[in-house]
Each structure stands twice: as structure tokens, then as C-alpha cells.
Amino acid sequence: MNSTVTTPDAIEADAVIIGAGPVGLFQVFELGLLEIKAHVIDSLGAVGGQCVELYPDKPIYDIPAVPSCTGQELTDNLLKQIEPFDPTFHLGQEVTKVERRADGRFDVETSIGTRFITKTIFIAAGVGSFQARTIKVDGIEEFEGSQLHYKVKDPAIFEGKNLVICGGGDSALDWALNFVGKAESVVLLHRREEFRAAPASVAKMKALCDEYEMQLIIGQATGFEAKDGKLSELKVTGADGVTRRVPLDMLLVFFGLSPKLGPIAEWGLDIERRQLKVMNTEKFETNVPGIFAVGDINTYPGKKKLILSGFHEAALAAFGAAPYIFPDKKIHMQYTTTSPKLHKVLGVETPVFD
Ligand SMILES: Cc1cc2nc3c(=O)[nH]c(=O)nc-3n(C[C@H](O)[C@H](O)[C@H](O)COP(=O)(O)OP(=O)(O)OC[C@H]3O[C@@H](n4cnc5c(N)ncnc54)[C@H](O)[C@@H]3O)c2cc1C
């Protein structure tokens, strides 16, 4: 039985995937090949996880056989790849509760009250329900979404504007460099001389400052001025203790993500440094049988937080979960190139080999 039955109370499922980042999306594919249909839940309103939230327009170079694609393109391709398996997405809702039932299945509940009864769970929750670290200046939050931004969704809205970009990591530097020449002015504000960003980006930024193409200020935002309901100046206190006023149209803040596991920490799973420990690298199953952890959320000796590692984990986790869903069926690995059975589930023609 691999179909799902919806009751007025709860959705009965074989597999629930928590997280619609790249690894959660590929988990749909690997489960689909084994004829397991998945429900995918994400607290964000869109799929793609970090790739779409943090770097939709930036190229990724280490996806096997894809020399270069942006975070958004990777997500679009994954969505296309999983089309044959018709997953059901439940977006804009955080999974708040996971509890084992007496019958061995799990009760899953989300922040808006969607309920599931599922045989298996795949936690692909990345860094958790991630939230950007906010700028700590009293009252400035009222400009969030209009003049204060924690991510760049539409670069065009910043063009021709006076920008102040806060932060010393890759996101801050990359966007500062990106907007030079497109924005009216770019000021990078960082609290110290040392940067976490790639040395090449730091060198490029310093060269642009030397050419007066942009400006670097070492200091911290300590206040602001508003005019006609608009954020007009940022007050910046330097290491010398002097507070200067920096006029601006837009404030971009890249202080990183607060690594909040959120409700996941309360589900009885083994946790090590805010990641889920898996019992082995054969199935990527957690200490709770039937719950698997894949992608950035898991930890094991040698773990590398890379998309390609998560894809591999998703494949093995699907095989590891199959006995919970089909206890009497022997599962064999087959090639998508040659298996008529897989062609059927993928909805493609079986090629004729000479
Ligand atoms: C700037 C940057 C550049 C990068 N470049 C590369 C690169 O070039 N190559 C590479 O391999 N990797 C790169 N990475 C890392 C890569 O993005 C991650 O390894 C990848 O996104 C992990 O995928 P994931 O699906 O495990 O988690 P994520 O992408 O983090 O997705 C997890 C999803 O789970 C959701 N979620 C969490 N908790 C809950 C909950 N309780 N309920 C519902 N939903 C929940 C989140 O909202 C999120 O959408 C980069 C990362 C950054 C920040």
C-alpha cells in the first residue's frame, strides 16, 4: 500500500519530509523511485531552502554533472525532476510536533494545525527553522520589508539607491560588490577590520574603496533618523567612540542565520551541537527507528555540509525506510537507464537497446 488517505482529522501518509530545501526535494525523488509518495512540509512560503532564501542568483559549481547553476535554477530543476512523483507540499507551516503512536507510526502536527499520521519521517531541516539575525537598533524594525532587508529577493529594487550594507561575511561582501555600479552609492558597515568573507572578495572590496567606487566604515549602527516616515540616516558609532550619520535609502543586513533547531529539539532525537546524530551512514536513521535525518541537519563522522552529500544520504535513507512501508517486499536497486519498472514510475518510454 503506498497510497495516501485523507481523513477530516489527519492525512495518512507513508512518508513525511520536513524541509523543502534541495535535500528534502531530492528525497521525494529517491522515495518516488521506490514507489513511496511523500508529503513535504516547510515553514517558508517557497521551496528551495538555503539555495532560494540565501543565494538564489549565485552560481553553484559543485553539483555533479552540472558545471554551474544558480540556487534558484537548482531548485527549479529538482522540482522538474520530482514532477512524476507528484508530492504534496504544505508550505508556510512549521512542524511543531512529532510523536510516536502506539501502532508504531508517528503523529505529526504543524503550526497551523495540519496533522499527519505517517509511517516514516525524513528530517531535511537544514539549519532548522532559520531566521536572519536582526540588527539591534531600537525601533528600526518598523522599516523591515520597505527599507530594511535581511535578504535580496529582487535586486532591481536596490538599483539607483544609496545603500548601507552591514556584515563581514560572504553575503555582505558579495552583495556589496554586486551593487557597485548599479546602486547610487554603496557603504559597507562592519564592526571590525577582520572579515569572514572569502579573501578575494575582501581584496576586491578594498580595491574598490581605494578607487572611491564604494566606502567601508568600521563601526556599529547605534541609532537612526527618520524623515516623513522614512528611514533617512543611520547613526554609526566608530571604534573611536565618535557617532557619525550616514544617509541612506536602503539598509541591507547580513549578520547570518540564527541556528535555531526550534521544535525539532523536543522530539526525543539524539542531538550533537544542534545537529541530529544518525546511527550509521548506511541508512541515516536517527536513534528513533522510522525517523531519518538527511542534509545539513544531520551529523556523523566525516560529515560535509554539501548538497551532493545530502543527495547521497537521501538515496540511502529511502532504501533504509522502505521496509517500514513495504515490510514484505524485497527492495532491489535498479538503474533508471535500464529498468522498465523505474521507467513506469518515472512515466518515460523504455528505450530499445541493440
Ligand atoms: C551562501 C551559501 C552558499 C552555498 N554554496 C554551496 C555550494 O556551492 N555547494 C554546496 O554543495 N553547498 C552550498 N551551500 C550549502 C547548501 O546550501 C546546503 O548544504 C543545503 O542548502 C542544505 O540543504 P538542506 O535541504 O539539507 O537544508 P536547507 O537548504 O537548509 O533547507 C531546510 C529547510 O527546512 C525548513 N525547516 C527547518 N525546520 C523546519 C520545521 N520544523 N518545519 C518545517 N520546515 C522546517 C527550512 O525552512 C528550510 O527551507 C551554500 C550555503 C550558503 C549559505
UniProtKB/TrEMBL annotation:
<protein>
    <recommendedName>
        <fullName>Ferredoxin--NADP reductase</fullName>
        <ecNumber>1.18.1.2</ecNumber>
    </recommendedName>
</protein>
<comment type="similarity">
    <text>Belongs to the ferredoxin--NADP reductase type 2 family.</text>
</comment>
<feature type="domain" description="FAD/NAD(P)-binding">
    <location>
        <begin position="14"/>
        <end position="298"/>
    </location>
</feature>
<keyword id="KW-0560">Oxidoreductase</keyword>
<feature type="binding site">
    <location>
        <position position="95"/>
    </location>
    <ligand>
        <name>FAD</name>
    </ligand>
</feature>
<dbReference type="InterPro" id="IPR022890">
    <property type="entry name" value="Fd--NADP_Rdtase_type_2"/>
</dbReference>
<feature type="binding site">
    <location>
        <position position="130"/>
    </location>
    <ligand>
        <name>FAD</name>
    </ligand>
</feature>
<dbReference type="InterPro" id="IPR023753">
    <property type="entry name" value="FAD/NAD-binding_dom"/>
</dbReference>
<feature type="binding site">
    <location>
        <position position="296"/>
    </location>
    <ligand>
        <name>FAD</name>
    </ligand>
</feature>
<keyword id="KW-0274">FAD</keyword>
<dbReference type="InterPro" id="IPR050097">
    <property type="entry name" value="Ferredoxin-NADP_redctase_2"/>
</dbReference>
<comment type="subunit">
    <text>Homodimer.</text>
</comment>
<feature type="binding site">
    <location>
        <position position="50"/>
    </location>
    <ligand>
        <name>FAD</name>
    </ligand>
</feature>
<feature type="binding site">
    <location>
        <position position="337"/>
    </location>
    <ligand>
        <name>FAD</name>
    </ligand>
</feature>
<dbReference type="Pfam" id="PF07992">
    <property type="entry name" value="Pyr_redox_2"/>
</dbReference>
<keyword id="KW-0521">NADP</keyword>
<dbReference type="InterPro" id="IPR036188">
    <property type="entry name" value="FAD/NAD-bd_sf"/>
</dbReference>
<keyword id="KW-0285">Flavoprotein</keyword>
<feature type="binding site">
    <location>
        <position position="42"/>
    </location>
    <ligand>
        <name>FAD</name>
    </ligand>
</feature>
<feature type="binding site">
    <location>
        <position position="55"/>
    </location>
    <ligand>
        <name>FAD</name>
    </ligand>
</feature>
